[in-house]
What we know:
two-stranded antiparallel sheet; alpha+beta
Amino acid sequence: xxxxxxxxxxxxxxxxxxxxxxxxxxxxxxxxxxxxxxxxxxxxxxxxxxxxxxxxxxxxxxxxxxxxxxxxxxxxxxxxxxxxxxxxx
Length: 89
């Protein structure tokens, strides 16, 4: 039952804004994200050895053109990796 309570706590508690980064995509407001390192620290703190992670293949995502200093426009690229987290309850 303890890990169920930990899962509830980690999913309902607001994140410390100091670990949330901003990604500027060129489409309006920046997107919030958490680095892989920060996520692993949070998971280790909450679940110890009772979770596993599976990662997708990395893929390059092109966003709207971004203006450069020379006045030309180049696409902004980000590498996206999705992660599935399984918690043993």
